[in-house]
Structures are given as C-alpha cells and as structure tokens.
Design brief:
146 residues, alpha+beta, Cytidine Deaminase, domain 2
Length: 146
C-alpha cells in the first residue's frame, strides 16, 4: 500500500464528486503537489462516489508507450468488472509546470482511446504538477497531431 504525502486530513469519501472542482479538490487532498512521475487511477461509482481504492502506477516512461498504456487500462478493466464502477478518472502526477506538454497529451490520448475501446467512461484527466492540480480539458489532448 502506498502512503500519500498529503499534510492535511484525508477527505471524506462519503461525498460524491459531482463536478470538476470536487474532483480537483479530492486529488489535491490525496496526492498534493507532484514529486514523482506516476499515474493515479480514480474509480468512481455511478453516483460519483470514489471507491476506496487508490494506488499509483509507478515507473511511467517519459515517452508514453501505447502498448503499456493499453495493459494498464486492461488491468483496470478487471477492477471495473468486479466493482460497481460508473467511471474512471486519471491523475497524472509529474514534476513540472501546469503546462501540458506533448508527452502528456500523447499519454492522455492513449488513456482515452484505451478506455473507449473497453467502454469504460472516462470522467476526467487531471494533471498533478509542482504547484497543484488542474483538470485537463479534452480539447487539450484530442487536438490534431502536427
């Protein structure tokens, strides 16, 4: 089990995450500012309540690998099948600024595509950076590749 480095009290898991602000605040309280490169899957039930399962996927390559991303989502699909999961969110933790770089966009596209192929609703993608957490708009990673 991984322990987070959040200094504040743990948020109440009995409150639903109804909008992006709720989700951003939850991720901020659980993960805090970035200090490593990791992907945090967040499983939500159909009413928006976070399931009490939170673990990082460590060892993400700097340059996203579509096959590895596919395997991560395939593993999560098994959890989705065995729990009452309504949607999935991902928080990408990585040191740096809030700017979404090309490698971040590629990883986001791979995650979204893998969820789509498995009919897993993707609730949101968030970026955990040096100064906090921000929600990544779908238009930021679905824009055409140059």
């Amino acid at each position: 089990m991984t322990t987070t480095h959040s200094a504040g009290p743990l948020p109440h898991l009995d409150a639903p995450l109804l909008d992006d602000r709720d989700l951003r605040e939850r991720v901020t309280s659980l993960i805090g500012p970035a200090y490593r490169r990791a992907l945090w899957p967040i499983l939500l039930d159909r009413a928006g309540f976070q399931l009490p399962i939170l673990y990082p996927v460590d060892g993400l390559p700097v340059h996203p690998d579509e096959e590895r991303t596919e395997r991560i989502v395939a593993t999560l699909a098994k959890a989705v099948a065995h729990h009452e999961v309504g949607s999935l969110a991902f928080a990408l933790e990585r040191p740096g600024r809030a700017f979404l770089g090309e490698t971040d966009r590629v990883l986001a596209r791979y995650l979204a595509a893998a969820c789509h192929r498995r009919a897993i609703p993707l609730r949101a993608l968030l970026l955990v950076h040096d100064e906090g957490v921000r929600v990544v708009a779908e238009t930021e990673y679905t824009a055409s590749i140059r």
